[in-house]
Design brief:
By secondary structure, the protein is an alpha+beta fold. 39% of the residues lie in helices and 27% in strands. The strands form 3 sheets. Strands 4-5-6-7-8 form a 5-stranded antiparallel β-sheet. The chain has a 4-stranded antiparallel β-sheet with strand order 3-11-10-9. Helix 4 (85-101) crosses helix 5 (128-137).
Length: 271
């Protein structure tokens, strides 16, 4: 046992193998020593508590940001890259124009009032990879010279889609609170709907984090929120999906069927 003389008391070093003597006991119990020792103990306690709090905060932040920053599995699988992206996108666009412009046999039934012509239903099959190639290779150029009224479409730059029998997944890259992530929606198709276009549910995610309604209000403008509400209601959207051609004909999408990496559109041409 040894002692050191300090400016504010006596520090006593005791080996674990020896008992404390009476003199040491009296020093340890003195008020001067208690004040000195308790101050150091409190500092160490506060330092330890600070470390624990920081670790807990880090764990909470990591627990929140990790699912936000992690991209969904379908997003990674639908990535398109390579020198042939532009060529694939251009070929896909030309095929769509050709399919929409083709003269189709007329329906055997007379056209409804107000129409002079209505074709038989025809099916257009679209692959997921070709859609993603067009989104990556043609959409930015297609929007380059569009007016400001097309700004909503500019948010789709970098978008990807995934087709499954259960429905459609669509997402766009974004930065949320400084974190690079993906904003995406899972559209569940209605297997009972033979015709028309409808979805039984639409779930929105940021990364792998299910986005609450309060977050959706900050991410989407009012028009986009109205569209989401309409889609979620499982209403038939076919009447609002139409392509008007230069010769006055209109191609209407009458139904949608999803497969594994494939989308089939049931269409009809009218005039």
């Amino acid at each position: 046992m040894r002692a050191e003389i300090l400016s504010y008391g006596v520090r006593v070093h005791v080996s674990n193998r020896f008992a404390i003597g009476e003199k040491a006991s009296s020093v340890l119990s003195s008020p001067m020593f208690e004040r000195s020792n308790s101050g150091g103990f409190l500092k160490r306690l506060m330092a330890a508590a600070s470390v624990v709090i920081l670790l807990m905060l880090g764990y909470v932040v990591f627990g929140v940001l990790r699912p936000i920053s992690r991209t969904p599995e379908w997003w990674e699988k639908s990535a398109i890259s390579g020198v042939g992206v532009i060529q694939t996108a251009e070929a896909f666009e030309n095929e769509l124009i050709r399919a929409a412009s083709m003269v189709r046999p007329a329906d055997s039934n007379p056209p409804p009032s107000g129409l002079s012509y209505r074709s038989d239903e025809w099916v257009l099959e679209i692959s997921q990879d070709r859609v993603n190639a067009w989104l990556a290779g043609r959409l930015p150029k297609w929007l380059a010279n569009r007016p400001e009224s097309w700004d909503a479409w500019r948010r789709m730059i970098g978008a990807r889609v995934s087709f499954k029998p259960s429905g459609l997944k669509m997402g766009v890259p974004m930065i949320h609170r400084g974190v690079e992530t993906v904003l995406w929606a899972d559209f569940a198709s209605d297997p009972q709907r033979a015709n028309g276009i409808g979805f039984t549910s639409v779930d929105v995610y940021v990364g792998r984090f299910a986005a609450p309604e309060s977050l959706l209000e900050s991410l989407f403008d009012e028009s986009t929120q109205r569209i989401l509400t309409e889609v979620r209601s499982n209403a038939d959207l076919s009447e609002s999906l139409a392509l008007r051609l230069d010769d006055g004909r209109v191609v209407r999408i009458r139904g949608v069927h999803f497969g594994d990496g494939v989308l089939k559109l049931v269409c009809r041409t009218e005039k």
